[in-house]
Structures are given as structure tokens and as C-alpha cells.
Amino acid sequence: MPQLNPNPWFFIMLTSWLTFSMIIQPKLLTFVSTNPPSNKTPSTNPNTTPWTWPWT
């Protein structure tokens, strides 16, 4: 059964994983995020009321 022979498939997986982690990933990480996180503190609404569930 050729499906159980890991010899060619392991090499393909290893090559593709190394290609991604060594070449593609560093190139993608150099891009600046288009939506950087802000330093604003989230505002809380003090006038909140609890939800009334119909089964309680």
C-alpha cells in the first residue's frame, strides 16, 4: 500500500513547511498592520441593565 510509505510525503511536507517558515513568513511579517491597535481605554456604559431571560 503506497499510502503507508511516508518517504516521499514526509520530504514534501518538510520542504513546504521550511519554505513557509524561512521565506514566506518573514516577508509577510514585515508588512505594517493597516489597523494598529489604539491606546484608548474602552469606555464603559454605566447605564446598563441586565437582560431579562424568558426562562428565569
UniProtKB/TrEMBL annotation:
<keyword id="KW-0138">CF(0)</keyword>
<dbReference type="Pfam" id="PF00895">
    <property type="entry name" value="ATP-synt_8"/>
</dbReference>
<keyword id="KW-0812">Transmembrane</keyword>
<dbReference type="InterPro" id="IPR001421">
    <property type="entry name" value="ATP8_metazoa"/>
</dbReference>
<keyword id="KW-0066">ATP synthesis</keyword>
<keyword id="KW-0813">Transport</keyword>
<keyword id="KW-0406">Ion transport</keyword>
<keyword id="KW-1133">Transmembrane helix</keyword>
<dbReference type="GO" id="GO:0015986">
    <property type="term" value="P:proton motive force-driven ATP synthesis"/>
</dbReference>
<protein>
    <recommendedName>
        <fullName>ATP synthase complex subunit 8</fullName>
    </recommendedName>
</protein>
<comment type="similarity">
    <text>Belongs to the ATPase protein 8 family.</text>
</comment>
<feature type="transmembrane region" description="Helical">
    <location>
        <begin position="6"/>
        <end position="24"/>
    </location>
</feature>
<keyword id="KW-0472">Membrane</keyword>
<feature type="region of interest" description="Disordered">
    <location>
        <begin position="35"/>
        <end position="56"/>
    </location>
</feature>
<dbReference type="InterPro" id="IPR050635">
    <property type="entry name" value="ATPase_protein_8"/>
</dbReference>
<dbReference type="GO" id="GO:0045259">
    <property type="term" value="C:proton-transporting ATP synthase complex"/>
</dbReference>
<dbReference type="GO" id="GO:0015078">
    <property type="term" value="F:proton transmembrane transporter activity"/>
</dbReference>
<keyword id="KW-0496">Mitochondrion</keyword>
<keyword id="KW-0375">Hydrogen ion transport</keyword>
<dbReference type="GO" id="GO:0031966">
    <property type="term" value="C:mitochondrial membrane"/>
</dbReference>
